[in-house]
Amino acid sequence: RGGGGPAGGPPAAPPGSDTYKGWLFKWTNYLKGYQRRWFVLSNGLLSYYRTQAEMAHTCRGTINLSTAHIDTEDSCNIVLSNGGRTYHLKANSEVERQRWVTALELAKAKAIRMRNNQSDDSGDEEPASQSDKSELHGPLKTLSSKLEDLSTCNELIAKHGAALQRSLSELENLRLPADSGEKIKAVNERATLFRITSNAMINACRDFLDLAESHSRKWQRLLQHEREQRIRLEETIEQLAKQHNSLERACRGAPGLAAGTASISSTAKGSVQSAKGEASDEDEETEYFDAMEDAPAFITVTADPKHHRRSGSNLSGASEGHPEDWNLEDSVFESSNQSSYNESTGKDLLPRKRRRTRIPDKPNYSLNLWSIMKNCIGKELSKIPMPVNFNEPLSMLQRLTEDLEYHELLDKAVKCESSTEQMCFVAAFSVSSYSTTVHRTAKPFNPLLGETFELDRLEELGFRSLCEQVSHHPPAAAHHVYSRRGWTLWQEITIASKFRGKYLSIMPLGAIHLEFHSSGNHYVWRKVTSTVHNIIVGKLWIDQSGEIEIVNHKSKDKCQLKFTPYSYFSRDVPRKVTGVVSDADGKAHYVMSGTWDEKMECSKILHSSHGSTSTEGKQKTVYQTLSPKVLWRKYPLPENAENMYFFSELALTLNEPEERVAPTDSRLRPDQRLMESGRWDEANVEKQRLEEKQRAVRRRREAEAVEALEEGKDYEGYIPLWFERKVDAVTGELICVYKGGYWEAKDKQDWSVCPDIF
């Protein structure tokens, strides 16, 4: 059936669209006569097939309408002729025939216009200008094309209207009853009104096109200006990058600067900026912050414990403490001096297993970061396809496990009898998790959905940790740690990240929970924002900024920690962290101070008072404290760390192959293993394979969801293996918590529930 329909196959598109399909009868020969064929009209070509299935592989014939002649023999026949080729076609009805004729006339007019445009545009212009011209004139050409369609329709309407009026005139001349003549006259008047209306519609469309043409010149000028500005900006940035690289090479090769460079790197290793007053290539690219706006809201004054009462007599004490409480011999603070990572921390634990202390050196591959990132501004980082050249050979699950590098702080916190004293160790632990990031500018691997990572140090360090990737978009990882020393930590972290052109913001979302078994103290806090600067030009460096509020939901103690963002104009030390530990009544007990890349100290408050008012109208609090005690100090990096991605001693062991782990463990990820071995080209190929495999699984899951929806069934989606979603009783948030079963499955070596993700 011509044009499609219930009896003739799928419905055809309207005649004005670019594609028109349907059944027609085609004359073959005198023996077989007319045979039913499937015709497809597209891009000015009319093709036919024996069946619809043949469209995928076999075309029986095609005729170009731009040079074809369209004729109608009778009420149902169509004749197409193009040179020596002629198609005799027949539709089921006159209505179907007319639909096809209209579609053919429109397609012919469009094909002629396309041919003329191609001949007009074929000049000696450069390919780039050709594309620019087509982009500039694209909307205008579309409007012109639609106007030509309407003009063609108008011609067809005029043609058929004239034929209709001739037929009506012939009927008027016939001898018919009087009432029939009146009806014919009324029909003739309606046909005339129809023609007038169609002409008015065409004129209105032409006026619209004229108006669009008058405005298009302004649009073209603005678009061309923006295009030129963008090209100039890209050229300038590329030139700056080249100049910066040449300056770095020249600096390395200058003998007079070698000693100065070495001394700077040794005394300020990891510094994100040169000292104030020195020349720096990062000045114009760095985000600066007003130091006065971020000035601390309190001032600390160290007092002599023997004379604290006399020195405090001049202060209007808002709160008081006693130096007798700061007993260095009995306090847990006495044991806060950090031991090296390789020393044993408990008598009840077995000697540590000998683990690797180095990995293959990082290859020296050069890659233009800007060529990849310039088209990703404003996008989510997890959705940007990145080669492994920007990665480090660890996954995000392993980076999350690195938070436990200073787990002994929590072991010491268990021994604290005072909840505020315990809060100090928890605060130091929350800051220590950022110490590994100061040099780590490379991106960890995005875990695959269902990927896991275990760190079983129960016999050596007293804890065991398990991470699982529980969501892919948005990426979310669940983490659970149990320590036989008396504490449990769990969290679900979702990473939100945005590339802003010259810096990258990484915002961890989700709460971290820590509970001590004996006291029942339950601490909750959230991470601060990490920012990677100098994405385009200069040396990459990382800064942490924001505030952390640690709350003990049992005793209602709080600790407010402030990570001061780096400022070139500030006199404070870089990467500064300050905070105050207070009880449920708001009384301050300890002052926390230090840097997130080196150490944290704690000072016991003797007196507090209100000081002078600043220029911004804020009143500062003055705390008189005892001498500070070091709670945490960063471990030194291993030898040759700069060639091993600046990994700490713990990080070097995280990807070390281990037996009996789950088949979904990050250690078994092939692209990550190839990258660690220095085979980056193979790692890139393997990374693409794994990502495509994950996309195929996601598409299958989406198809299952659609099928379930059509059947009226519920579809649960992906269900984590070792974690389950529950409403947290403390925060009221829906988070993934460990449901058990992993370590039992490891003991039995029964991994039948694990999916094949690698």
From TrEMBL:
It is found in: Membrane. Residues 223-250 form a coiled coil. GO terms for molecular function: cholesterol binding. InterPro entries: OSBP_sf, Oxysterol-bd, Oxysterol-bd_CS, PH-like_dom_sf, PH_domain. Residues 17-109 form the PH domain. CDD domains: PH_OSBP_ORP4. Keywords: Coiled coil, Lipid transport, Lipid-binding, Membrane, Phosphoprotein, Transport. GO terms for cellular component: cytosol; perinuclear endoplasmic reticulum; plasma membrane. This is Oxysterol-binding protein. It comes from Vidua macroura (Pin-tailed whydah).
